[in-house]
Amino acid sequence: MKPVPAWFRYLAYVMAALFATCVALQYNDPDPIRWMVSYGVATVISALLPVRREAWIAAAAVGVGAVAWAGYLIYLTWGVIGVGDLTHDMSMKGGAVEEGREAGGLAIVAVWLLAAAAFRRTRS
User: Fold this and answer.
1) Count of domains observed in the chain
2) Considering Cα of 7, then 10, then 14, then 15, what sign does the dihedral take?
3) What is the dihedral of CA 105, 110, 115, 116, to 10 degrees?
4) Which residue segment(s) compose the domain that 49 sits in?
5) Is residue 39 part of a domain?
6) At 81, is the secondary structure helix, strand, or coil?
7) What is the four-CA torsion angle of 80, 85, 89, 92, rounded to 10 degrees?
8) H-helix or E-strand spanning residue 3
9) Does 112 fall in a domain?
């Protein structure tokens, strides 16, 4: 097996810091607990990926879960909001904009964890 390159360690720790920041920003969300847990799990897995080879399994599992959850949220908001609505005030479209933004966050988690899992699986 190949060793984990420095760029991967750096990127994993940057993503862990990003997800930790997301946890902190959820305190004023209408449903903070599930998002704090989701981003918290992504934080821990991201921090473990450079040092624990078997962390790729958790990364893959959580990544697949994030894809499914994001897909469900996209299904709920499809046709209700457009991509441009995600950057505007929520007052007109309400909860659909929030769900669209949540799907975006889950997509970031999913892409990172699945890509990192695929890469980490091949490294010792």
Assistant:
1) 1
2) positive
3) 80
4) 6-120
5) yes
6) strand
7) -30
8) none
9) yes
Residue 1 falls inside a structural domain: no
Phi and psi torsions of 90, nearest 5°: -85, -5
Backbone dihedral angles phi then psi of residue 96, each to the nearest 5 degrees: -65, -35
For 123, counting Cβ atoms within 10 Å of its Cβ (0-12 exposed, 13-18 middle, 19+ buried), the class is middle
Q: Is 1 helix (H, G, I), strand (E, B) or coil?
A: coil
Q: How many residues are recorded in the chain? A: 124
Dist CA 31 CA 28 (whole Å) = 8
Summarize pLDDT for 16-73 with one digit per residue, the tens: 999 999 999 888 877 889 899 999 999 999 999 999 999 999 999 999 999 999 989 8
**What percent of the chain stands above pLDDT 90?**
58
Show the CA angle centred on residue 12, arms to residues 2 and 60, nearest 5°: 75
Q: pTM of the predicted model, to two decimals?
A: 0.85
Evaluate whether 121 touches 52 at the Cβ level (below 8 Å).
no
